[in-house]
Design goal:
GO molecular function: hydrolase activity
Structural class: alpha+beta
Number of strands: 2
Number of helices: 2
Largest sheet: 2 strands, antiparallel
Mean pLDDT: 91
Organism: Pseudomonas borbori
Strand order of the largest sheet: 1-2
Keywords: Hydrolase
Shape: flat
Protein name: Phosphoribosyl-AMP cyclohydrolase
Distance between the termini: 24 Å
Order of helices and strands: HHEE
Length: 53
């Protein structure tokens, strides 16, 4: 099972090192990922862009 599925099924209080999560992110050749910021209460998208590690 990949890390993301493990995290979806993790119990309250379970944790993983941040470095493990960052290593599992599918970074592009430039070291970036797509990122979308959403409104917390409605889920409406507010911004999109790229983020580096």
């Amino acid at each position: 099972m990949n890390l993301w599925l493990q995290l979806e099924h993790a119990g309250l209080g379970d944790s993983r090192p941040l470095s493990e999560a960052l290593d599992a992110v599918p970074w592009n050749a430039d070291g970036l990922i797509a990122a979308i910021a959403q409104q917390h209460d409605s889920g409406d998208p507010r911004r999109r862009g790229r983020r580096n590690r």
